[in-house]
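A reminder from the course coordinator: this example appears on the midterm review sheet, so study it carefully.

Given structure:
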């Protein structure tokens, strides 16, 4: 297979996950800056080691070789050849980032959810019209969470010198209404790296009120004055199941783009993508291909 070379602005780093196929991985997504139009790309799998062995913060611009993903129907998904990565730039907050983000289409979540099949955009930028809440679910003691902790402990024994991954038993959810006039509201899990790091660090620094602090911080990130937008992405086992992958700022709202087929529309392989079933498991839901 001949690889393509891509220039990517990293905008999404999800919380590390652990799956049976690829071990400890991170869902990385960004914006392809090569070519005439900027568009979304998902890089998977990216091993967790790529981050702790090298510095790859959000808003870094990298160049690397990629191959179209053979097991993921979502049009934006590619396999990265991580050892070909060259770091080109780091975009500071403010004008330069905003220039890139404001060239992307903005979707409504109502349209993304209502679209059928695998060819809908699986990554996008959604400008909330109104934030309606922040919620958390506590999965302490759940079987799935315990299994994940066990696998993480085993992984750390194999990788000498690797930092130990810790998985939050909490799921944090953002409630909002999108720009669709008929929107009745969405509540979606926030899975960005920072929120799991906030859980990991703040529960030690602020043991009595770290959950309140997390809520306060994430609500501040979507305050209207910041011109927030949500980076959203769906799950390969349930294309209508979108998650909040991160929060952008300085995004000027424009008329939402109607949702059509994404780039590189391909025929589905294993499912017609119309299922409304929930993903088979929450473990590795973004990742385990
Ligand atoms: Zn909506």
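Designed residues:
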């Amino acid at each position: 297979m001949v690889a393509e070379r891509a220039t990517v602005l990293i905008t999404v780093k999800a919380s590390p996950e652990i799956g049976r196929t690829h071990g400890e991985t991170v869902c990385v997504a960004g914006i392809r800056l090569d070519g005439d139009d900027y568009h979304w790309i998902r890089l998977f799998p990216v091993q967790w080691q790529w981050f702790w062995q090298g510095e790859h913060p959000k808003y870094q611009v990298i160049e690397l070789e990629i191959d179209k993903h053979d097991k993921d129907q979502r049009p934006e998904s590619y396999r990265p050849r991580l050892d070909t990565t060259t770091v080109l730039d780091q975009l500071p907050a403010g004008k330069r980032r905003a220039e890139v983000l404001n060239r992307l289409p903005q979707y409504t979540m109502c349209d993304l959810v209502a679209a059928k099949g695998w060819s809908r955009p699986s990554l996008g930028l959604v400008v909330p019209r109104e934030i309606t809440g922040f919620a958390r679910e506590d999965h302490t003691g759940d079987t799935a969470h315990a299994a994940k902790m066990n696998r993480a402990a085993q992984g750390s024994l194999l990788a000498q010198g690797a930092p130990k991954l810790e998985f939050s038993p909490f799921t944090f959810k953002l409630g909002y209404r999108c720009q669709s006039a008929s929107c009745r509201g969405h509540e979606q899990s926030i899975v960005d790296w920072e929120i799991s790091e906030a859980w990991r660090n703040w529960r030690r620094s602020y043991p009595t009120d770290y959950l309140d602090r997390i809520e306060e911080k994430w609500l501040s990130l979507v305050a209207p004055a910041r011109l927030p937008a949500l980076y959203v992405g769906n799950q390969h086992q349930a294309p209508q199941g979108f998650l909040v992958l991160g929060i952008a700022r300085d995004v000027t709202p424009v008329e939402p783009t109607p949702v059509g087929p994404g780039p590189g529309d391909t025929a589905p392989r294993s499912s017609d993508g119309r299922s409304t079933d929930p993903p088979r498991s929450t473990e590795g839901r973004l990742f385990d291909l």
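The longest strand covers residues 77-90. The first helix runs from residue 49 to 52.
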